[in-house]
Amino acid sequence: MQFGIFSVSDITRDPISGETPSEAERIEAIVKIAVKAEEVGLDVFAIGEHHNPPFFSSSPTTLLAHIAALTERLILTTATTLITTNDPVRIAEEYAMLQHLAKGRMDLMLGRGNTAPVYPWFGQDIRQGLPLALEHYNLLHRLWREDVVDWEGQFRTPLQGFTSTPRPLDDVPPFVWHGSIRTPEIAEQAAFYGNGYFANHIFWPTSHSKRLIDFYRQRFEHYGHGTRKQAVVGIGGQAYIAKRSQDAVKEFRPYFDEAPVYGHGPTLEEFTQGTPLSVGSPQEVIDKTLTFHDALGDYQRQMFLIDHAGMPLGMVLDQLELLGGEVVPVLRKELAARRDPESAEAPTHAGLVKAKYGDGPARQPRPNANRGDNVTGASPYQDSEPAAEYPEI
């Protein structure tokens, strides 16, 4: 089981101090938060992708590569990478490079995003959001598994004899999660390829996430990747922790009330009652998180949102101390005791390499005449079979 934190990279006014951090201050802060996450014993750090104010994370690979250089153990990932408005060729190149620089300590979560104006900014039509997600990932999947790709689709120019560089580290593509809040077609896509499915699990009751996760597990088994129990599931969540529950509610309330994403709507108490939001003592956060397992079964990754709504850096670092020091150790023990032996292990690069090569050495790709030629378009050999085409939905 992996535990981590994710950030949406918002730059929001602090309702207590009245101050809004600069982009430079917020970027510096997020690096400190990621480094602290490793220090307190968490496994994963994730950053979202946005191309509009008030968010700063327009280049996740640049940020994650910098964090990789400052950490030793932390798995770095996204929440999410926009599969709709990014060119899959650029995704293949940039995340393979990140994989090399991070020595395999990375994966990525793909999603459609929820900011409508982004589509025309990158030459796309939001009404084609789902077909874009399906077609773009089919190409990305092939680019990481086939040395030479001939491809033609609806949304970008054809490729002839194309080799994406660098090739994935150890010739093992990064693990991919498909993230979604409400779209069963994305759960279907994750199941078809045998990839992970990540339910955001923030704004909706657990019963909503359960429907999508159950559907993904069913389709994962249908496509022959393993049993339903072996499907790879991640979920989001958000928490605010204090030693005493009344202090947690008092401290978090002004940030909740003014938060752009849920302020001025249901009360903090109503939102906590109806969604996965946890606000309370370490034990209360532990107890609520364990209810996710009760409802969803074994899952492989639990992520928490803790740095948002204008909370200052010091407050976030205090949250990390409590999360890593008092909450996660108990959750690790409790969830390990409940885990079905048939359930999948949490995905890591080392695990993927082991699955592909066993105890043998990993292949290290090198450019040569038999790997294609992007200058002439020649593709004399291919090292792998073409990936299956994604079915129409």
Automatic annotation (TrEMBL):
Spans traversing the lipid bilayer: none
Region feature Disordered, mapped onto this chain: 337-393
Gene Ontology CC: one annotated term: cytosol
Alphabetized GO MF terms: monooxygenase activity; oxidoreductase activity, acting on paired donors, with incorporation or reduction of molecular oxygen
Keyword Oxidoreductase: yes
Database matches in InterPro entries: Bact_Lucif_Oxidored (IPR050766), LLM_FMN-dep_put (IPR023934), Luciferase-like_dom (IPR011251), Luciferase-like_sf (IPR036661)
Domain Luciferase-like: residue ranges: 1-298
Biased composition (Polar residues): 371-382
Keyword annotations: Monooxygenase, Oxidoreductase
Database matches in Pfam families: Bac_luciferase (PF00296)
PANTHER family: BLR5498 PROTEIN, LUCIFERASE-LIKE MONOOXYGENASE
Name of this chain's protein: LLM class flavin-dependent oxidoreductase
